[in-house]
């Protein structure tokens, strides 16, 4: 179709409201500004917000006047515009749900699954908490039609109400990027997974650039008019946080980049998770003071992924940050507290006491991060079961997998999330009898009751499953790391003995402990009888063996 023919068809579509035909023309790239200079204006007059968004996506030569009309329309939409804007919300919702479904499809390859997970987070961030008109604004800020000159010109023509709406929208985006630093552009998801919305999510660069132009064009108004101050305070706080995070990330990257250059490790700076990969390979070369500063920054800025990398790679010592455990508990990062138990070898008695009290009587807002720990145990248990039912494995490996599956099932089933966290504490190399005794002596009545109940559960498990026992080989052979974090019967009995030593009079005198203790005593007697019988049988067999050798 020629340009004139397209122009005539466009005019007819507007007059006769042939919206489906118009949508087809725009979506197929047949529409240019020169075909119909009033197209955007007419669509706004007809309140077809969905088609205005389509123009932003597919019409490559929109003029400054068009961009200004669209910006003003989305920042201060008339009441009768929301019905067509709802179509835009449905598009975003549909794409977000599609991404989530793909991200949970276990039949996909690792790379595709990772891409789907990135896309699902990105689209969730782009959709949640935004109004319908703000969802439409996403298309404008991510549009190829928008350069700094055009955007600056349009922003200079906004009134106070529109300015306030724009600052509020930009502030929402800044808070999103502050809370979820792992979110970033995901263009591959558009072509690989058909998640087209991924290319229409404004980047942090887009948001900061737009905010900079707002300040350039309206600085005096923003300072002089009180109605802008609340929005601006909120935005400035987030910008300071992001700027500090960027400076620290840049400093860390510089330190490790220097190490990378000297040691000649092959990690490409453009790779996703570049800093994390470098820390994994070269973090051991970082000095204690540097690690300490990075830890403090991670806590303040809540850079949890970076902190996790440092802890998991054994780069954290108590001497680097003496308040690390306390700060993690204050921030309710139970999963990272467990990681400290696994990888920080010099935790102090005060740290152990804080952790013990936290897991025995967790605050309500601690359970969300504890759920991460439960998922780890579930994942390891399921992996053990899958391995144990793999008939293609050799006999020894299969037997080892079966032992591990029983052990992990015992360690997971019937325990609460906080009790699963306690497993790491009781199996920790940081915990000797002196430290544990000191910590137990400082527990209150409620904490004591929780500890006795937890130990009682373990005793019943070992009574019900006598075949369950330590299985350290499964950690190295089958990558079932959780196997080394299952408290043994010796660990449980030792802890129970210390409870009785430290709190004997309280346990006897206070009736609220009696029911728990009766239950525990019954299991202990049963286990003791079993041990005596096993010992007697072992003695008989040993005597027979000696006599047979003598004969």
UniProtKB/TrEMBL annotation:
<protein>
    <recommendedName>
        <fullName>Nucleolar protein 11 C-terminal domain-containing protein</fullName>
    </recommendedName>
</protein>
<dbReference type="InterPro" id="IPR048897">
    <property type="entry name" value="Nol11_C"/>
</dbReference>
<feature type="domain" description="Nucleolar protein 11 C-terminal">
    <location>
        <begin position="21"/>
        <end position="235"/>
    </location>
</feature>
<feature type="domain" description="Nucleolar protein 11 C-terminal">
    <location>
        <begin position="305"/>
        <end position="512"/>
    </location>
</feature>
<feature type="signal peptide">
    <location>
        <begin position="1"/>
        <end position="24"/>
    </location>
</feature>
<keyword id="KW-0732">Signal</keyword>
<dbReference type="Pfam" id="PF20998">
    <property type="entry name" value="Nol11_C"/>
</dbReference>
């Amino acid at each position: 179709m020629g340009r004139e023919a397209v122009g005539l068809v466009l005019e007819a579509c507007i007059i006769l409201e042939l919206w489906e035909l118009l949508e087809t023309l725009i979506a197929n790239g047949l529409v240019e500004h020169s075909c119909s200079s009033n197209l955007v204006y007419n669509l706004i007059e007809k309140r077809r917000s969905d088609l205005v968004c389509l123009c932003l996506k597919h019409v490559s030569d929109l003029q400054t006047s068009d961009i200004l009309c669209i910006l003003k329309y989305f920042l201060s939409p008339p009441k009768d515009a929301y019905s067509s804007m709802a179509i835009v919300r449905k598009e975003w919702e549909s794409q977000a749900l599609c991404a989530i479904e793909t991200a949970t499809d276990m039949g996909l390859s690792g790379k595709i699954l990772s891409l789907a997970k990135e896309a699902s987070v990105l689209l969730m961030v782009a959709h949640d908490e935004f109004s319908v008109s703000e969802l439409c604004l996403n298309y404008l800020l991510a549009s190829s039609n928008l350069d700094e000159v055009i955007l600056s010109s349009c922003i200079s023509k906004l009134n106070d109400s529109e300015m306030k709406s724009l600052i509020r929208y930009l502030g929402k985006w800044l808070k999103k990027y502050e809370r979820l630093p792992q979110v970033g552009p995901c263009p591959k998801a558009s072509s690989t997974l058909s998640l087209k919305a991924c290319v229409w999510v404004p980047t942090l660069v887009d948001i900061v650039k737009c905010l900079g132009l707002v300040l350039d064009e309206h600085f005096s108004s923003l300072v002089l008019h009180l109605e802008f101050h609340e929005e601006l305070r909120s935005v400035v706080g987030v910008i300071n946080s992001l700027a500090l995070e960027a400076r620290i990330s840049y400093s860390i990257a510089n330190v490790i980049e220097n190490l990378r250059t000297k040691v000649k490790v092959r990690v490409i700076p453009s790779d996703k998770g570049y800093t994390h990969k470098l820390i994994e390979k070269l973090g051991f070369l970082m000095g204690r003071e540097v690690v300490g500063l990075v830890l403090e920054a991670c806590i303040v800025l809540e850079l949890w992924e970076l902190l996790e990398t440092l802890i998991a790679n054994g780069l954290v010592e108590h001497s680097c940050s003496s308040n690390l455990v306390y700060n993690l508990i204050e921030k309710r990062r139970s999963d990272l507290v467990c990681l400290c138990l696994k990888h920080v070898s010099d935790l102090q008695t005060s740290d152990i006491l804080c952790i013990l009290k936290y897991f025995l009587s967790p605050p309500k807002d601690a359970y969300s991060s504890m759920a991460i720990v439960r998922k780890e145990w579930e994942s390891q248990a399921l992996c053990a079961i899958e391995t144990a039912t793999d008939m293609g494995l050799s006999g020894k490996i299969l037997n080892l997998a079966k032992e591990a599956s029983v052990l992990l099932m015992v360690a997971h089933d019937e325990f609460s999330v906080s009790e699963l966290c306690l497993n790491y504490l009781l199996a920790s190399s940081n915990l000797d009898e002196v430290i544990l005794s000191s910590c137990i002596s400082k527990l209150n009545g409620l904490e004591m009751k929780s500890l006795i109940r937890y130990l009682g559960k373990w005793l019943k498990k070992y009574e019900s499953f006598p075949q369950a026992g330590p299985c350290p080989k499964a950690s190295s052979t089958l990558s079932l790391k959780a196997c080394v974090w299952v408290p043994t019967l010796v660990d449980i009995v030792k802890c129970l003995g210390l409870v009785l030593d430290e709190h004997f009079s309280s346990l006897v005198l206070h009736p609220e402990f009696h029911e728990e203790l009766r239950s525990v005593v019954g299991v202990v007697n049963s286990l003791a009888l079993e041990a005596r019988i096993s010992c007697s049988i072992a003695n008989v067999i040993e005597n027979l063996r000696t006599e047979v050798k003598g004969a």
